Amino acid sequence: MAVKIIQTDQKLTLDRGYVISIVISNFKQHKDVEVHLFRAKWDPEEYAAYDWPDIIGNPIPQAKEIDPISARKVLLETFSEQEKDQIIQYLKERYKILLKEIRVSVLQLPIPLGLIGLSEIEPQGDIGIIEFEKVPNYPLDFPVHGIYNLKMHPEIMECPPIEI
């Protein structure tokens, strides 16, 4: 399993902003499924502590509805440096055989108004959520969820039985 740190010119100026995704080699009969991880909960005090006008940018042109709360969730769902390190260690120990890659990058600021948090995407059909904290012996003190879309990944074809 490779851990890839994606470098950007932007320096992290907030106490959080690390974005993590994983690639699972074989998941639900699909190959190399990318799962985007996110924090599922945060404290109201943390929400109130940020200077949102400096963090949220201009609206994206294709946004149908503009909800400033949704754009704020994009930041709140990212991880601090300590959380990032804990998640990587957990994944390396628990899922080392299943994972092909762990990718880490820094959230680009400002966050365009009109983006929504991953927690707002409803699981349906090929889109699903993994709730890691529900796995037995989950060691982290914060919930981590992952969202995936199986339509984005090729199915693993089953070989027909060979008759001899």
Protein model, in words:
The chain is α/β, with parallel strands linked by helices. The chain has helices at residues 44-49, 52-55, 68-76, 81-94; strands spanning 2-5, 18-27, 30-39, 56-59, 99-106, 111-113, 127-131, 144-149. The strands form 2 sheets. It has a 6-stranded mixed sheet with strand order 1-5-2-3-8-7, with helices on one face. A two-stranded parallel sheet has the order 4-6. A hairpin with a 2-residue loop joins strand 2 (18-27) and strand 3 (30-39). The radius of gyration is 18 Å and the shape is globular. 20% of the residues are buried.
Short description:
The chain has 164 residues and is α/β, with parallel strands linked by helices. It is 20% helix and 30% strand. Strand 2 and strand 3 (30-39) form a beta hairpin.
Compute the number of strand runs: 8
For the largest beta-sheet, the strand count, sense and barrel status come to:
6 strands, mixed
Element-by-element helix/strand order: EEEHHEHHEEEE
Q: Helical residue percent?
A: 10-25%
Low-confidence segments: none
Number of helices in the DSSP assignment = 4
Which outline best applies? globular
Query: Going across the major beta sheet, what is the strand order?
Result: 1-5-2-3-8-7
Question: What is the mean predicted local confidence, pLDDT?
Answer: 90
Distance from first to last alpha carbon? 37 Å
CA-based gyration radius? 18 Å
Class inferred from helices and paired strands = alpha/beta
Q: Tell me the strand percentage band.
A: 25-35%
